[in-house]
Amino acid sequence: MTKLKNILTILISLIVLVALFLNFDAISEKLLSIFNSTPEVKVLPSNEYKKDDDFQLIKQVDKYIPYNYQDLLNIFYSTLNQGWTDFTFYCPVEYEDCLNDVAKISLNEELLSNINNYVHPYNSYTSIKTLYDSTGKVNVLIKHLYSENEIKYIEQYADTVMASILKDNMSLETKIKTLHDYIINNTKYDAVRASEGDSKYDSARMTGLINEHYAICSGYADIMSVFLTKLNLPNFKVSSDSHVWNAVYLNNRWLHLDLTWDDPISTNGRDVLQHDYFLITTNRLKVLAKDNKDHNFDPKVYKEFAK
């Protein structure tokens, strides 16, 4: 009986070895897939200021494994758009240039700033840092431009203004004009910060516009973006090397809206309200801006205005 058991054990062992040998490739592929698989990405809920609109340069995604450069751009945008402050994703082994492309994007301040223009001002960054290593792990760390308490205050201000100056029977264009005029009539352009790079006012942010009634272009554009979003209008900010303004989708087309240039500094010190840059086409913008470079935006970035 013992001898029979030994024979059976040997036979079973031989069968197992043959089976393993015959399926060696399949087993190898399985082991490789286990060791080379991309780790699972932990996705947190977005905040309430996430935009649902897609744009021609970038779009919101729900899968965070990049396979090309455009996927990376979409992931960086989606990270900002969701309102996250700390997000980790992984480069798959089949995307050989992934980390090189991550490095290119993370070191390109102009590109990141342009991507930032497409998110809600509350989700925009004051600093963004990207960490990555040879394993393919990429960690994006974001510090937001506005704190939670500041956002609560701005929201209360914006809701109060809209309730007091807008009427239900107004057209969308009239509502935008009413808000445009209100902001300009209650704000002075901070020429000191614009010329010297610093000021006693918090004019680069909309908090300075609200509290101190001084702003530069970024403050004007941020508060207008908040109002446009509350009107349920797709919008983003457009920037050149020296300036930023708003773009809004109205009546089935994208139009420019520049409150800064509609609030010029007069030679006699009197407040001036203009509508030269109110809901204009790109062709009109080029005519008005032929003698200045402030509106020389890149149509390869802001493709909504490309022809």
Descriptive report:
The protein has 307 residues and is α+β, with helices and mostly antiparallel strands. It has two domains: 69-144, top7, de novo designed protein (2-Layer Sandwich); 148-305, Roll (C8orf32 fold). The chain contains eleven helices and nine strands. The protein has helices spanning 2-22, 24-36, 69-82, 98-107, 109-116, 148-165, 172-185, 191-196, 206-212, 217-230, 282-288; strands at residues 86-90, 125-132, 137-144, 188-189, 214-215, 235-239, 244-250, 253-257, 278-280. It has a four-stranded antiparallel sheet with strand order 6-7-8-9. Strands 1-3-2 form a three-stranded antiparallel sheet, covered by helices on one side. Strands 4-5 form a two-stranded parallel sheet. A hairpin with a 2-residue loop joins strand 7 (244-250) and strand 8 (253-257). Helix 7 runs antiparallel to helix 10 (217-230). The longest helix is centred in the first third of the chain and has 21 residues, at 2-22. The radius of gyration is 27 Å and the shape is globular.
